[in-house]
Write a structure and sequence with these properties.
This protein is an alpha+beta fold and 268 residues long. Helices cover 19% and strands 35% of the residues.
């Protein structure tokens, strides 16, 4: 299985601290050596960095770790290949355009026997189940809502239905964002933390690094960090129940709903 990392904030924030620990999971503190990637939203634009090399030895990862790009929404992924060769085109996160905005998707899991027909509006470039799932989700969104984006609650409800379908094919932990809000689906393993005033020091699990957020923030800042496994060992992370879809906005969860446990067939 892969590793996911997401960040959603109420003010543009860099992810250097969290990424320092996350990077180590790509070959040092864990076995995920099949590529990595990270996407930063900047207004309607996206900075996307991808590398099929392990993050622990990637010079691009070193650049990202040292470069304080500030963003309201970030999605990162470290790959342990299940379907598809280790290659650049199979490296997450994936990016597509819908309704005049970029969408970013990263997936942790294995979707078996998932080969739905696609309209052709969104087609996978690589050979992963993850990219096909992303294209299918956007296909279904466009089929339902046409050329106009829906209100946030309708979007969430539709993603809930689509996530329920995906979960019937296997583990489907994912992060999805269009730059306005961040969606997180926990199929087997995801956790989150919201950092806000009063801020404190945090220590990484995967690196001996400590940061005192009092030195880096203002009292009005709020940052939600989502990861496959908690990144720090001295903070209280919230473990998401398996089979739940979450929406994060302005640095906090604003909606949650049960979908279904991976592999469970939902009776209609």
């Amino acid at each position: 299985m892969c590793q996911l990392l997401g960040m959603n904030c109420n003010v543009p924030t860099d992810i250097c601290f969290s990424f320092t620990g996350f990077q180590a999971r790509g070959g040092v503190t864990d076995v995920h050596r099949d590529g990595w990637g990270i996407a930063f939203f900047e207004e309607k634009g996206v900075r996307l960095f991808l590398d099929p090399q392990p993050s622990c030895v990637s010079q691009i990862a070193e650049l990202v770790r040292a470069y304080p790009i500030r963003s309201l929404n970030v999605i990162a992924h470290i790959r342990k290949a299940t379907q598809g060769a280790v290659s650049l085109e199979n490296t997450h996160p994936f990016m597509r355009e819908l309704w005049g905005r970029y969408w970013i998707f990263a997936h942790n899991g294995n979707l078996e026997n998932f080969a739905p027909p696609l309209s052709g509006a969104f087609m996978p470039v690589g050979t992963t189940d993850s990219e096909r799932a992303f294209c299918w989700v956007l296909d279904r969104l466009r089929a339902r809502f046409g050329q106009c984006p829906p209100p946030p609650d309708e979007l969430f409800d539709t993603l809930h239905d689509l996530s329920t379908t995906l979960s019937q094919h296997g583990a489907c932990n994912y992060l999805l964002s269009n730059g306005e809000r961040l969606f997180a689906h926990c199929s087997t393993a995801l956790a989150y933390i919201v950092r806000c005033a009063p801020f404190a020091a945090a220590h990484l699990k995967d690196q001996d690094v400590t940061v005192d957020f009092n030195d880096l923030t203002t009292p009005n800042d709020r940052v939600a960090v989502i990861a496959t496994q908690p990144l720090t060992d001295n903070e209280a992370w919230h473990v998401m129940p398996p089979g739940t879809l979450w929406c994060f906005e302005e640095g906090q969860p604003v909606r949650q709903q049960t979908t279904g446990v991976a592999g469970q067939v939902i009776q209609s």
